From TrEMBL:
Main localization, broad class: membrane
Membrane-spanning parts: 39-61, 73-92, 98-119, 131-155, 161-181, 211-232, 247-270, 277-295, 301-321, 342-362, 368-388
Cross-referenced PROSITE patterns: MFS
UniProt protein name: Predicted arabinose efflux permease, MFS family
Organism: Microlunatus sagamiharensis
Length: 407
């Protein structure tokens, strides 16, 4: 059995690795489009089926690790993810891509809440756990985009090598997660039957619901933007900005997610209230700069906008994960974080699918401009909701001493 510090490292690696696969195909989409004559809508469908499978998995087995333990769920998800990578490596058309994405979505759905809960379980404290668990999605996505772009541009077997490398890594990690630290779980007699836990559901403990609902606008704004980057980002960089190198495309996509990880770490130094508003404000500013870069056809300005938006993404998402970690009972963390990812991935996929449909009718640039405006509007809603919730909490705190004196 691994020590708790080593378990924390393995859990963090697991959390990042499951989302490395999510971005690995992104730099290859233009290649698939040219090779097989796929439309922008077809690529969006390939993106969307992944999220449909992921949501179905989250709603059924997303909280299973609360019942049977983190290790078996994590190991099985990694083995299934390795199979998805093999299917990608052997893909010969759009149908094969759809199958690979479905397998990948099921695996990531099973692993998403489990990975976050595993990190929080093995972290030395809740603050460190929230930092790492909110940073690893951005780190994993950035790694996948940069790794794929580099291997496609410079390595042999440009359409296959990245997937073979990831498949091997997932199999190794599937063995390692069997040895991580596991929290003690209640006896099975204290809980409903296992089959009931597998029924599609997305519940929350009563004490967690107010915090969760207040954080929904933040979750939607952050993940809707990341969905745009992963579904249409390579087309934006290639078609609008005129970048032809797969390595550069992967690097530009990775900039947003790398800065997201940095934003997560930097936000820890801020008090809770500045964490929330500064993250959302940076997200809105970055989106506006990015849209301006498209209008001006400026790749450097697009990179600057991506950096600022990424910093906001990291800070805002870290605040949400930390708040939910504080509000969630230890025995229900898998359920709470699975519900968080249900909301996140709906926001990740539905707007991106709508954007893919809109591109065919209105064009890429107008679609991205409207998408950006809607995301900024969501950020403003998140700021208002956060301010109202903070004011209510302060009012409740101020009244509590008075109530004590009266008693």
């Amino acid at each position: 059995m691994l020590s708790r510090p080593v378990s924390f490292v393995v859990a963090g690696t697991f959390g990042a690795a499951i989302l490395t696969a999510a971005s690995a195909p992104s730099p290859l989409y233009p290649v698939y489009q040219r090779l097989w004559g796929l439309s922008a809508f077809a690529l969006t469908v390939v993106f969307a089926v992944y999220v449909v499978a992921l949501l179905a998995s989250l709603l059924t087995v997303g909280s299973l690790s609360d019942r049977i333990g983190r290790r078996p769920v994590a190991s099985a998800a990694l083995a299934l993810l390795a199979l998805g990578m093999v299917l990608f490596a052997r893909a010969g058309g759009a149908g094969d891509l759809v199958l690979a994405r479905v397998v990948q979505g099921i695996a990531v759905g099973a692993a998403a809440g489990t990975g976050t809960a595993m990190i929080m379980d093995s972290a030395p404290d809740r603050r460190t756990g929230s930092v790492v668990s909110s940073a690893v999605p951005a780190v994993g996505i950035a790694l996948g985009a940069v790794l794929a772009g580099t291997l496609v541009e410079f390595a042999p077997l440009p359409r296959q090598l990245v997937f073979w490398v990831l498949a091997a890594a997932y199999l190794v990690l599937a063995v390692l997660v069997w040895f991580v630290h596991e929290p003690v779980r209640p006896a099975s007699g204290e809980r409903p039957p296992l089959w009931r836990a597998l029924l599609p559901s997305a519940g929350l403990p009563a004490e967690t619901r107010p915090a969760f609902l207040a954080l929904v606008p933040t979750l939607v704004a952050t993940w809707a933007l990341s969905g745009l980057y992963l579904s249409l980002g390579s087309s934006i960089i290639g078609s609008v900005l005129g970048v032809r190198s797969h390595f550069v495309v992967g690097g530009v996509l990775g900039v947003f997610f790398v800065s997201g990880a940095i934003g997560t770490a930097v936000s820890v130094a801020l008090p809770p209230r500045p964490q929330q508003w500064s993250g959302n404000a940076a997200l809105a500013l970055g989106v506006l700069v990015t849209v301006g870069a498209l209008v001006e056809r400026s790749t450097p300005l697009y990179v600057v906008g991506s950096v600022v938006a990424g910093l906001g993404f990291g800070a805002a998402f870290r605040f949400a994960v930390h708040a939910l970690g504080e509000a969630a009972p230890a025995g229900a963390r898998g359920q709470v974080f699975a519900s968080m990812y249900v909301v996140s991935y709906v926001a990740f996929s539905v707007p991106a699918l709508a954007a893919g449909l809109a591109v065919g009718r209105f064009g890429l640039e107008p679609t991205v401009v409207v998408y950006g405006a809607l995301d900024v509007a969501l950020v403003l809603v998140a700021l208002v909701v956060g301010a109202v919730r903070t004011r209510r909490a302060e009012r409740a705190t101020a009244l509590r001493p008075c109530a004590t004196l009266d008693a």
